[in-house]
Amino acid sequence: MAEQHQAHEQHEQTAEELHELKRIRREKLAELQAAGADPFQQVRFERDHHTNEIHEHFDELEGKTVRLAGRMMSKRIMGKASFSDMSDRYGRLQLYIKRDNVGEDVYKGYKKMDIGDIIGVSGEVFRTQKGEISVAVHELTLLSKNLTPLPEKWHGLKDTDMRYRQRYVDLIVNPEVRDTFEKRSAIVREIRNFMDSRGFMEVETPCLNTIPGGAAARPFITHHNALDIDMYMRIATELHLKRLIVGGFEQVYEIGRIFRNEGMDTKHNPEFTTIELYQAYTDYHGMMDITEDMVVHVCEKVLGTTKVTYQGTEIDFSKGWRRMTMADAVKEYSGLDFMNMDGAQALEAVKAKGLEIEKGKDSWGDLLAQCYDEYVEENLVQPTFITDYPVEVSPLAKRKPSDPRLTERFECFVVGRELCNAFSELNDPIDQRERFERQVALRAAGDDEASMMDEDFINALEYGMPPTGGMGMGIDRLVMLLTDSASIRDVLLFPTMKPLSAE
Prior knowledge:
Blueprint: H1 2-34, H2 51-56, H3 58-61, E1 65-78, E2 81-88, E3 91-98, H4 99-102, H5 104-112, E4 118-127, E5 133-144, H6 160-165, H7 167-173, H8 175-197, E6 201-202, E7 208-209, E8 221-224, E9 229-233, H9 238-247, E10 251-259, E11 271-280, H10 284-303, E12 307-310, E13 313-316, E14 322-325, H11 326-334, H12 343-352, H13 364-375, E15 384-387, E16 399-400, E17 403-407, E18 409-414, E19 417-424, H14 429-444, H15 455-462, E20 468-474, H16 475-483
Parallel strand pairs: 3-5, 6-10, 14-15
Antiparallel strand pairs: 1-2, 1-4, 2-3, 4-5, 7-9, 8-9, 10-11, 11-20, 12-13, 15-18, 16-17, 18-19, 19-20
């Protein structure tokens, strides 16, 4: 109790100190405004260089005048001359501010500035006696006033919740966080470059749907007032994209936000980003090839290597990813040989393992999928394609001609987690209707993640869809792997958070 009381007192003291610092900064702002120098009235500052260019091209820029702008991150007053570090999007640079260079009034104003203020400078590039590349400032302008002090020790702060809530502060004080999101942008850009180079066309499909389809997930429900109908935020882009394949667009893809009304953890956020792509006249083997090629391309272009370290484990994304069937994987990791068992034998074998079997999910295919989840996933560290999923868990995939219990579907797993899902698309409207009907029955029995009947999609298939391969990948999960980020919140600029008022 004494420790708790002490911690509470320290928290209150910190809050009081923060309040006092904010009060002082507002007084400084009032003084500036009274003197006709309101920093919030500044509307434009022309700059001709960024901090990284000064470092990278010092030999060319030494002795030349440059104009820069950014946030003051440190201030060291040393009498008639002082030093500050300024940061912009690309890095940091030391500024040398001398009273004789900027003038008495400007120097006095500089001494009253606070860490966190936004400034613009003009000055000469030089190297200090200690060898640090710097800019000797001749002109200094306060462009925006910081009214809330930056945290002194934000990095490594145990309260990661606050970092996610105040991402703007996280980005200011943690360069490695900014680097993660720079990489994320580059990853998405290179995915687009790869897809475009393969002849795919990027399209946009609705986020609001009258039927949630394309995945097994619980949707967000909203209401359209003018139509007086309930609508659903999309849980996948699949069914609209396949309509476009029917319409004659033979290679399409969409990078977009998906919404699922489900739990949150280190791998799940209610809204996330995927890429879904569809190509006519190919199958799931073609999708495996394009998936592998795309990830290799992204690794090489963004990271310069196909070998990455994720949470202490080296992952090799170079060509030649392992491919194995779900049944073979289950046999390898559990000893159960489903391909040599019928439904009754499989049920007895799974019961003998002590697994709890969900009501209504005791078919051969359901049991195979359950054993896979139980025994296999966590063991798949290096990139692995798991193929030939049972039809019960693959309502949109084409059956294998050689074994109608299975579908031409694969998922790729890395470090025990799913990266993507793909299959040879089901283009038989009669079979598709039967699969939807099974999903409808599951939904009626209480499965909120089961699909609804989509008559228009079946109608589209009746016009004829060519043999097609499709793949969906979670971009957030790919970014996590390529930036060594432990949580999906580390790669979302603004992850979903419970409001503080509700806690």
